[in-house]
Amino acid sequence: MIEKITGQSGNKNIPDEFDLRKNMGAIIDKRYIIIVITFIFVFIGLLYAFLSSPVYHADALVQVDPSGEIDMMSNISQLLPAKSPVSATEMQLITSRAILGETVTQLNLDTEVRFTSFPIIGEAIRRYSQPGVPRISVDIFEPRGGVIGDSYTLEILSNAEYQITSPSGATVSGMAGKILDTPEFRIEVNEINALKGDKFSVTKVEVLKVIEELRANVNVIDQGKDTGILTISYNGRDRKQIKNILQTIIDCYALQSIHRKAEEAEKSLGFIKSQLPLVKNNLGIAETKLNAFRSRNNSVDLPMEAKSTLDSMVQLDGQINQLILKETEISKLYTTQHPAYLALIEKIQVLKDEKKNLNEKVSTLPLMQQEVVRLTRDVQSGQLIYMQLLNKQQELKISQASTIGSVRIIDRAVTGLKPVKPNKALAIFIFACLGLISSVGFILAKVSLQQGIDSAEILEDIGLNVVSNVPLSEWRNNHYSNSMRDTRPVSLLALEKTSDIAIEALRNLRTSLYFSMMEAGSNVLMISGATPEVGKTFISSNLAVVVSQGEKRVLYIDCDMRKGYAHRIFDIKNVGLTEAITGSITYQEAVQSTKIPRLDIITRGKLSKNPSELLLRKQYHDLIHWASDNYDFVILDAPPALAVSDAVIIGRYAGISMLVAKFEQSTVREIESAIRVFNRNNIDINGVILNAVVNKPSGFYNYGKKEIYEYHSPET
């Protein structure tokens, strides 16, 4: 029994939720697309892995020893705060412009030499066909006028001869190991490791740009907290060059450490030398005053307490002098508000306070003894300070002569035998994953954006009655296409392949219609669609054949007076409905017999400018009644309901009306809109036919496993 459908669906708003079964089914349906896309990505990964230039890794190990530093603060380390890790400072120093810039200068890295080949493929072919990378060593390259960025083409003539072409087009020849001096440039090619005919581009590059490239490829890693051991590495394409670059960086780093220590020693030595004449002069003055005092006065005896005070004052002067020297050095490292500087000043002040106390103690002595203590103290303090400076001078001279710096090279630069990039297996795996993820993501996104009806359940969930699921005929799909419809007669599937699953579905629909028409009290069936290209003519024409095969007299009327093409399907003249309504021919003359027993047809006839007005005429009403009285079944093929109003007029004279929806093309919104159009005109839609249903593997997840039951020829 076929029920009536209204435009008010049971569940207007279907929740937008993730349907695992639907998405899994979509993935299974499109598995071949996923496989193809994944293999394409794998192929791209293979190209990347085998065509990319290999990147090698060179590394070295150095130790930074802060104990080797030369300073004058070794005796006040207890006053200084805990130092930050030396490694952090040295790591920044290694990648400084000073170190990297010196490396660029020594290796002439601002001269860029590139082997000229076809991009990517040419280099890869050369790499796999011949061992080694073509290279030349350019020790000197100086364009006149300091021009930066101009490319010079250097072509190899032999293993010892080359020719170079300037941007102006001038070509000159040169020999390896000899300086070539021209008005435009000056160059020296020291080594040639290439074949005759190989070409290289030689370009002068900005030094800062090269430094940034070096910095991007240098990596410094601290091997442990407070160990002072650093691993320095460098990545590049040329095994020999990256080793030289890394070793030069380390050598420049170690050399600057030595120079820094020597410079510190030189500055300290200069300070000592500047102080020695002043101290010696003050000592001479003090001795003269003491001798003059003794010559004027006889021997003056000092009590034991005064002698002890004198010795203490001399020691304090020596200690204060040492701290003042240290203050001179520490002021170069810290501000006056730094805790280390403040601690040193505080200690000096403590010694000065002790000296002040001793001076007050001396002031209690007789005047003669006070003078003796003062003069003796000046002489002894001067002698002590002078000896301290002399000793420090000798120490600094020895340190300067034996300066080794604070950097020790443990392992020199070595380049690994195998490249670190690209990791071929990893690259292929990553590209395979990208292909899989992108293909699955694309399919899931397409599913989420797809609004087409892909199952009868979608229509049933919103209260629509699906009277038949008509599968897509693979046989018809392989033999005919939409493009053929206007150029050749369209076949009837019910005749050409009677066992097709689509025809079996129409036979099931025929059975339902028998009982429904008995209940409806009418034998007129209208078949329409919401939009064009949903297969309503395919359904109605083949249904007419199937019904006629059931011993019923059937009249098929092509009511699509705008685009109907039933005359091509049945291969008959296109004279029919238009002419019958306008009175050009009688109803009997409009009916044409077909080669199918018990099946007659009325074609659309001549195209009319006003089909709706023709359908409103009484003649159309009389035609339908005449057909109903003279045939067992009358099938009306109506135009799309949302496209034109003809279907509403046609539906008024039908006992049963049905809509055709196309699988994954028609939308729920279109079907509901079409039903509302009919309902507003008091026309009931008795069911929806879902056409061109594809039996996908995902159908297993939605409906359970489906099998096709059909007849086969005896041969099979």
TrEMBL record:
What catalytic activity is recorded?
L-tyrosyl-[protein] + ATP = O-phospho-L-tyrosyl-[protein] + ADP + H(+)
InterPro entries cross-referenced by the UniProt entry: AAA_dom, Bact_polysacc_biosynth/exp, GNVR, LPS_length_determ_N, P-loop_NTPase, Wzc-like_C
- Organism equals Rahnella aquatilis (strain ATCC 33071 / DSM 4594 / JCM 1683 / NBRC 105701 / NCIMB 13365 / CIP 78.65)
Kindly state one GO CC term assigned in the UniProt record.
plasma membrane
Where does this protein chiefly localize? Answer: membrane
Note the topology in the membrane.
Multi-pass membrane protein
Q: Record's NCBIfam families?
A: eps_fam
Q: Which PANTHER family match?
A: TYROSINE-PROTEIN KINASE, TYROSINE-PROTEIN KINASE ETK-RELATED
One Pfam family assigned to this protein is: GNVR
Q: Where in the cell is it found?
A: Cell inner membrane
Q: Which residues form the Tyrosine-protein kinase G-rich domain?
A: 368-447
Source taxonomy lineage? Bacteria, Pseudomonadati, Pseudomonadota, Gammaproteobacteria, Enterobacterales
**Which parts pass through the membrane?**
32-51
Which stretches make up the AAA domain?
Answer: 534-645
State the family it belongs to.
Answer: Belongs to the etk/wzc family.
Domain Polysaccharide chain length determinant N-terminal, first and last residues per copy:
16-107
Keyword annotations: ATP-binding, Cell inner membrane, Cell membrane, Kinase, Membrane, Nucleotide-binding, Transferase, Transmembrane, Transmembrane helix, Tyrosine-protein kinase
A Gene Ontology MF term for this entry?
identical protein binding
Q: What name goes with this protein? A: Capsular exopolysaccharide biosynthesis protein
